[in-house]
């Protein structure tokens, strides 16, 4: 009798062990959202300049996406700014020193106009936007991206920074419509507009 109980317990233990191993293998192949790194993708888009009041709308380049924020900044600045691999932010001082953002006295080509972040306090995935033409938001020049869904960034922005004399106007509708909020220089949160931005205008 005791031998049968021992054999039965051993069989049950083997089944439980096999089931547990299968679950671990499945989890490794199909990680849940909570198990995935929260860094996400880091994408870069170039925006062509337009003049306020003009009939033409700004156009954008094809997005380029990277595994790290450092790679995205390297690409967005044309190699002018190199960051450590684990960097999640870049300072305005670094950008100025590298000639990656425009000032009234020193306009530059390919200036950064904004960096948008998935989470508050500049965390998570990022979207870096630079001027593919123009030298920043001077003399009535503006840049825009009318539909963030095409970048998989619709309703995902909760903080951001702006550069090159630009103010970021975050709209909850596409094509710069609906409720909006402004971000000037640095916004660790967009408040009631967190995770609601569908289009952005820099002016």
Automatic annotation (TrEMBL):
SUPFAM superfamilies tied to this protein: gamma-Crystallin-like
InterPro entries membership: G_crystallin-like (IPR011024)
- The protein depicted here goes by the name Peptidase inhibitor family I36
Keywords noted in UniProt: Signal
Q: Which organism is it from?
A: Thermasporomyces composti
Which region is the signal sequence?
A: 1-27
Keyword set includes Signal: yes
Q: What Gene3D superfamilies would the database entry show?
A: Crystallins (2.60.20.10)
